[in-house]
Amino acid sequence: MDADAEARGLVERTRTRFPEEALTTDQWLQERGWAPDEVTFVWIEAFADRTSEAVRRHDEAVIKAHTEFMATEHRQGSESVRSLVDVAYAENLMWDLDVSDRVWAWPHIAHTVRALYEAMWGVPKNAHG
To answer: What is the pLDDT of residues 77-126, one digit of tens each?
Structure first.
């Protein structure tokens, strides 16, 4: 399977697991002129925003569900899927949030996603978990 097909597979599995967040992600992309089915990398980046919104709301269940799903995809996926989870999801997670929100969320983020985030941005100051 080629990298594009693998990326589309990740998007489809994410859509199936999180239909409401997928709809919000599609709408967000459409508002910005993108066809959601044609921009897998950007779609995963935009899905990371759904997780960031859950962090902002302090919704522990959604944070855990999203990050555990992506952690599983990273562990079980091909190199292109692992790269997408790393670069498009983990590196974009919480990018526009206050440090206090990042610190609060840190213990609720799956360890695999935390490690990817930490490799790019470091541990949020004063975060433990």
So the answer is: 999 999 999 999 999 999 999 999 999 999 999 999 999 999 999 888 77
How far, in Å, CA of 116 to CA of 33, rounded? 30
Are 10 and 73 in contact, with CB atoms under 8 Å apart? yes
pLDDT reported for residue 50: 98
> Mean pLDDT score of the chain, rounded to an integer?
94
Residue 99, CA distances (Å) to 17, 56, 83, 93 in order = 29, 11, 26, 13
Pair of tokens at residue 98: 């206050």
- 128: tokens are 């433990």
| CA–CA distance, 30 with 78 (Å, rounded to integer) | 28
DSSP string, 45-108: HHHHHHHHHHHHHT-HHHHHHHHHHHHHHHHHS-HHHHHIIIIIIITTTTTTS-HHHHHHHGGG
pLDDT tens-digit series, residues 23-34? 999 999 999 999
Listed residue (90, 95, 82) closest to 115, CA to CA: 90
